[in-house]
Amino acid sequence: MLIITCPWCGPREQTEFAYGGEAHIVRPKDPDALTDEQWGDYVFMRKNPRGRHLEQWAHAFGCRRWFNVERDTVTYAIKSVYKPGEPAPEEAK
Amino acid sequence: MSRYSIFTLARNALSHHENWDQAWRSPEPRREYDVVIVGGGGHGLATAYYLAKEHGITNVAVLEKGWIGGGNTGRNTTIVRSNYLWDEATHLYEKAMKLWEGLAQDLNYNVMFSQRGVMNLGHSLQDMRDIERRVNANRLNGVDGVVLTARQVKEMVPIINDAPHARYPILGASFQPRGGVARHDAVAWGFARAADARGVDIIQNCEVTGIRRDGGRVMGVDTTRGAIKAKKVAVVAAGNTSVLAAMAGLRFPIESHPLQALVSEPIKPVLHTVVMSNAVHGYISQSDKGDLVIGAGIDSYLGYGQRGSFSIIEGTLAAIVELFPCFSRVRMNRQWGGIVDVAPDACPIISLTPVKGLYFNCGWGTGGFKATPGSGWVFAHTIANDAPHELNAAFSLERFYTGHLIDEHGAAAVAH
Fold it and tell me: Which residue of A has its CA nearest to B341?
């Protein structure tokens, strides 16, 4: 089980959290102006990387707030945690 | 290659089974093929077999990064059924079911296909309404299915906990008599042997590291065993679809998640059918060897690590023990994870791509094993004709742009 550090509550077990998918997907400002391809890309297409992933989690059984996690999808190791609105961390060299 | 029969069995018994032919060759990869199939799982091997058998295309290589039967083909819970809800999905899975029914003879390989039936339990009024709707839809599509009452469920599976005060009371079930199980690695071995016999090169320990393109057309692949030119490249590598798609500059609506399963120590025959419960998330059958084969759920987060969370197993076993109290002291022998490609509508993508000559077959999510022969059959048609068969035309990548999704979350036994 992952131990996830909520930016507000500190380290807690993964079962307290809900996964929210890829982070930093911005809803288009004017959906009506998009082509079907652009809309489908926004709604469905995902990076799904093997390795470093920036993703959203919610502390569902805690403070109920959303935040972002930088995690490796192969080792499952969590590299960093940051609040919504904060910039994505630089990729470690 | 000699055919397997009672006579070859007897003849080899005389030499203590030490002189059997190898089931397939292990050739060095050639420099060029008509078709390169990336991924030597059941679906990839079936694709190669049907390319050779149905379309006469035998200059084919199957590239497998590990070994045959070592990926998801050897990690699933071996269940076969075709009782999906929507027409498109039902026809696709029923095509596979029809191929299963003659597969052992066709491949000359005992895949131990056992049509012991598959039961999906209903625990609430809404479950039962959904079950009735699905069984009716199945029957209209010519797929067998019946709705069982709680009493009929108890008669068929006497060890089930049917107490009215149970945490998950059983109100009834759907039952597909033609459903059942098959020996999963035998399916991979059988397809590998039969494809090899028709001239297909099966190359293990050969990982694809790049997909070569020129002007929007596929030219071949780079591998850990050198570059291989190909007129057509067909990717069917569940778990790593997005990784391979990225090599060709493509994006897919796929997320890879860990899915777990476990088996118990062998016990005497006690469960002669497959019991699944969508609502409480457990499914269980007993193998011919006697071990209970139990499927757990997927982890919600992305993962490529072929292992999952203990909390998932805990939840599944709590449900199994509630349904079958007599299993509470059975010891579990092994537990493992595989990586499944989940599509947004719980249906596969069997499709051409914007790159000419490059085809993808993916997104089978938690239930690809049951479709193995059908998946290979339609994918072979798609590759050979550079156009989908009518059975898989609806399963193209375009559906995520047109909005024509085929929502099978209800019929996929593992919640996505």
Answer: A48
**Which residues of A fall below an 8 Å CB-CB distance to B?**
1-2, 14-15, 18-19, 21, 36-37, 39-41, 43-50, 53, 55, 71, 73-76
Which of B64, B155, B119 lies closest to B282, judged by CA?
B119
Q: Furthest-apart CA pair in chain B: how many Å?
A: 66
- CB-based contact A36 B310, cutoff 8 Å: no
Q: Which residues of B touch A69 (CB under 8 A)?
A: none
Q: How far apart are CA B409 and CA B416, in angstroms?
A: 7
Close Cβ partners of B234 (under 8 Å, ≥ 6 residues apart): B35, B36, B37, B38, B44, B47, B358, B359, B360, B361, B379, B383
Contact B301 A75 (CB under 8 A): no
Assign residue B184 a region (left: φ > 0; alpha: ψ between -120 and 50; beta: otherwise).
alpha
**B310: closest chain A residue by CA:** A1
Q: One-letter amino acid identity for A26?
A: V
Distance in angstroms (rounded) separating the CA atoms of residues B266 and B282 = 19
Which pLDDT score, from 0 to 100, does residue B281 have?
82
Contact (CB<8Å) B402/A36: yes
Q: Tell me whether residues A40 and B400 touch, CB distance under 8 A.
A: yes
Could you give the CA distance from residue B183 to residue B69 in angstroms, rounded to a whole number? 11
| Residue type for position A48 | N
Strands B332-342, B255-266: parallel, antiparallel or unpaired by DSSP?
Answer: antiparallel
DSSP tally for chain B: helices H, then strands E:
11, 18
Most B CBs within 10 A among A19, A39, A44, hence the mutation to make, goes to: A44
**DSSP H helical ranges for B56-156:** 87-101, 103-107, 125-140, 150-156
Residue range B76-90: mean pLDDT, rounded: 96
Q: Are B280 and B323 in contact (CB under 8 A)?
A: yes
Q: Which residues of B21-37 are buried (b: 16+ CB within 10 A; e: fewer)?
A: eebbeeeebeeebebbb
Integer Cα distance of B173 and B44 in angstroms: 34
Query: CA B46 → CA B31, B73, B83, B283, B381, distances in Å?
Result: 23, 12, 22, 26, 12
Nearest CA in chain B to A75: B305
Please give the C-alpha separations between residue B399 and each of B203, B343, B408, in angstroms, as whole numbers: 33, 11, 14
Question: Is residue B355 pLDDT above 70, yes or no?
Answer: yes
Of B254, B305, B309, which is closest to A75 when you measure between CB atoms? B305
* Average of per-residue pLDDT across B30-52: 98
ipTM of the complex: 0.94
pLDDT single digits (tens) B204-259 = 999 999 999 999 999 999 999 999 999 999 999 999 999 999 999 999 999 999 99
d(CA A24, CA A56): 9
